[in-house]
Predict the structure.
Amino acid sequence: MTNATQPSHKPQVALFITCLSDQFFPRVGVAVTKILERFGCTVEFPAAQTCCGQPIFNNGFHAEARQLAKRHVEIFEPYEFIVTPSGSCCAMIREYYPQLLGGEAAWEAGMRRVCQRTYEFVEFLHKVLKADLSAFALPQRQTVTYHYTCHQRGLGLSDEAVRLLNQIGNVQFVAMERADQCCGFGGTFAVKYPVISGAMVQDKTDCIAKTAAQTLVCNDAGCTMNIGGMLHRRGMPMRVKHIAEVMAEAMGIDLDAW
Amino acid sequence: MASLSLPQVDFRAAAAEGAADARLREAVRNNTLRKQEGREARWTELPDAQALRELAARIKQHTLENLDYYLRQLVDAVRRNGGVVHFAADAEQARQIVLEIAQQTGCRRIIKSKSMATEEIELTPHLERAGLDVVETDLGEFIIQVSHDRPSHLVAPIIHKDRRSIARVFSEYFHAPYNDDPPALTQQARLFLRDKFRRSEMGITGGNFLVAQTGQVCVVENEGNARQSLTTPRVLVSLVGIEKLVPRMSDLAVMVKLLARSSTGQIMTVYTNIFGSPRQNGERDGPQEFHLILLDNGRSQILGDPEYREVLRCIRCGACLNVCPVFRSIGGHAYNSVYPGPIGALLSPLMFGLERYKDLPQATSLCGACGEACPVKIDIPRLLISLRRDMVNRRLSGKLERLIYRLWAWGLQSRFLYRVIGALQRWDLRRRADADGWIARLPKLAAGWTAQRDMPAAARRSFHNIWKDRH
Ligand code: SF4
């Protein structure tokens, strides 16, 4: 396979939108596509894709999740790079597909290839494209804080997103307390154990409020729904955005039309 | 399966009670945050913390894979040193052994140092019921004992209490005026315990580690109370789980290096006691008899399962509790087990039955903070998911739930179904939303979401739809 750290002349990227972003935040997909193209990638969208199977797997339905994993591998295997705006789905593939498909002779090799080629968006910008955003600036000064989503842990990411944000002109970054504490989303956990999940997102939004930032950057659709929902319930004014949306704004990219 | 006499409680209700108690949440949060910061500071001082973790994990895993060999080695060494070894298959046997030792040696006054194994078998209340005078000598455990409470954290048993509630308990217990000054409280306990130490006949300890090669027990502590148990009473009993073994002294060095750092953020605890024999010729203190009770109580069953075996690597440092946002939100009592927090969510169902602890593996967002903190690299989130799988396979999850997930998975298998169902769901959500695109109430199945926070309406068109415009 192609060495991940040395992209070919024009990296061929398949966008894995993920089911939540597809249904709730399609603009993020538009932003990711256009940004990657600006950085010289060819972006394709395999239309057969649905979901990596994470909610099914996490709830213990492993036979069903295995079928979805196979389907996902089949769809994405042909591509040089697979990029997704959602850290948690990326972690699902890289951490748990080996558990689901490891040892299945027909699938093992393809699964490994897909694992090696799958990147979270920020990770791809950082590791493969070695992107530098210092040429771009937001039209107006904006205070920005950042929620470290949990799946950064599994992906071995640390402050890459914050470093990218800090490169953008007119971004005034404000650090958040307990920035890496889980927001309490956890997929179906938020619905099954609302009291616990609610206490967690309460604490998270307390920390966000303390920063007094205008924008919270959060690179995961689930966390965005949870945190955004709590900010709205509590009447707090800050907006939640994916880093791709902030970048698009700084790069002057129109997200309302191709 | 190990037996357990704790009453069964409704986890959701207990968790809600914890979450509703603002004082508790604040106390637990501040305390765990302080410990987390301490641990992180100690870890960054180490030249290669990750390599050390890896080494510790391998030492423990290797020992577990060869436990029969190392147990034999340990037993031989303890006997050579003049100690007596007992095996306890379960809690009942372990308690019986302790009672018999007390009877045979005529001991009535017992001092006990902090130990999770003795907590697990509920030793103190049983000995008290048998008419023995038992006193917990660790300050936290002493407070738990006199207030008839239960520990809520592996390392900090009174993490849920504040000094005012402790002062109230002490004032009542010692018939003394109320005083909530911490040094004064400590002094009160100290005076009381000093007398208990002096008159004690039997000491009971647990063990953080057992060294197979030398037949010794290692107990770490900060108050010097465990050391009293080793030196003053004429009979010493150590009750230790069989998973606490390490092969050699050099392995112990690795574990000790990790334990205090992970647990309290100390480089080392104030006292590191290594012992394991009766008083030898020429020694001025130490017991006349030393008994080591090796406790199984469900451990060998976990050991026999290669998938879950690694949970036995746990050194009970509490780091996973300290970083856990669920633990911070509900406190330790909600888990209704001697083992709370992330590791408790594994140990409790594995030791005492998944049927009994169905909620624990599910009541987590799987954020992974625990696995990242664990000094012996137990993959806690992965194993929690495995327990969820076991629940499905053993049909312990609800019928409706099984139906929903299977339908969901089926819908994701086909691009056509995915699009149709997605479109219907988006339409339904948008229909429920206000003009700004927010939903305040969802119907039954998803009501948990809107009980706590609003729900964003879905997009009018999915990305799949939008992409099609491009071509
Ligand atoms: S599971 Fe790991 S972090 Fe948790 S108490 Fe055990 S050793 Fe410590």
User: Anything to note?
Assistant: The mean pLDDT of chain B is 95.
